[in-house]
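About this split. The held-out portion is used to measure sequence recovery: a designer receives only the structure tokens and must propose an amino acid at every position. Recovery is the fraction of positions where the proposal matches the reference. Here is one held-out target exactly as it appears in the evaluation file.
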């Protein structure tokens, strides 16, 4: 993979603990953090968007706007900006309302707006509509690996020359979203954009069985493939974001520092992989600790996805 520049970070998080502290860290990107678990989006969306968008779409749109603001905007053509999000469940509120109306009042009582807003790709579509992003528009529904897979595919779209800039990340209603602005290195350098880090490699594999050994084999394959693509050996990895226990063979028993997105942001399955990349970017701020970071996501169904982030 040609290294893809991360030039903007946008985070919307309901947590008021660790994420609130991170929001105040210089160079951490643009954040909107909730108070008492509640998020006020009224300053970031207009009345129509607040009234008609499902919750997942609202969160994704705000996070995407914050990422663009953090990157200084995107001066390119609309056709050169794409969107790729992880969002497995769509908006559960809309789906529940749809089911309730059908079961209690019959199909004739269902509002025509409920179904499209309950679809899992509604968030990515609404981000594109609001931001006039006419490039690739993709959604991954791979559970806890969705945010990781979305960021990886966003980087692939740039590598293949399909677009010049991608918004990649994940969203989980009712309260969490993380979106990163990704650009080709040439585009970022050409406009003098600040680069927060690089996505240098990515890989994903499904475990051959649901045993612990099966997960470990899938994790080892994904990590090895992503590191090879990045041109990095396992011994150079400075930090793992995710379950480092699955990578014992990858690191030959070497102890590698690890952090968890869940302990920082709470449970946010479809967004957790994107939050992992955010934590990797934050870890690169210290010159004394700059080095490759491996982000690992896995699902109970056996998907193990890895992204390698470098300075």
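Reference sequence for scoring:
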């Amino acid at each position: 993979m040609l290294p893809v520049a991360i030039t903007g970070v946008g985070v919307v998080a309901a947590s008021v603990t660790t994420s609130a502290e991170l929001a105040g860290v210089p160079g951490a990107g643009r954040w909107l953090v909730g108070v008492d678990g509640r998020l006020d989006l009224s300053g970031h969306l207009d009345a129509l968007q607040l009234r008609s968008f499902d919750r997942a779409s609202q969160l994704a749109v705000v996070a995407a706007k914050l990422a663009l603001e953090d990157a200084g905007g995107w001066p390119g053509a609309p056709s050169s900006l794409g969107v790729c999000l992880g969002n497995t469940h769509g908006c559960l509120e809309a789906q529940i309302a749809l089911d309730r109306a059908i079961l209690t009042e019959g199909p004739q009582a269902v509002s025509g707006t409920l179904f499209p807003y309950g679809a899992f790709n509604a968030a990515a579509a609404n981000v594109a509509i609001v931001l006039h992003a006419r490039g690739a528009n993709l959604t991954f529904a791979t559970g806890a690996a969705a945010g990781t897979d979305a960021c990886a595919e966003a980087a692939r779209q740039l590598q293949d020359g399909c677009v010049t800039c991608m918004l990649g990340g994940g969203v989980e209603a009712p309260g969490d979203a993380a979106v990163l602005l990704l650009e080709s290195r040439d585009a970022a350098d050409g406009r003098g954009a600040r680069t927060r880090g690089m996505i240098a490699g990515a890989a994903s594999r499904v475990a051959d069985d649901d045993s612990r050994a099966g997960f470990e084999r899938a994790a080892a394959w994904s990590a090895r493939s992503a590191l090879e693509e990045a041109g990095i050996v396992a011994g150079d990895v400075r930090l793992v974001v995710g379950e480092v226990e699955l990578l014992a063979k990858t690191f030959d028993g070497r102890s590698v520092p690890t952090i968890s997105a869940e302990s920082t942001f709470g449970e946010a399955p479809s967004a957790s992989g994107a939050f992992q990349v955010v934590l990797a970017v934050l870890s690169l701020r210290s010159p004394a600790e700059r080095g490759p970071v491996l982000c690992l996501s896995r699902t109970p169904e056996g998907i193990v996805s890895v992204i390698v982030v470098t300075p």
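Annotator remark: The chain has two domains: 4-190, 197-310.
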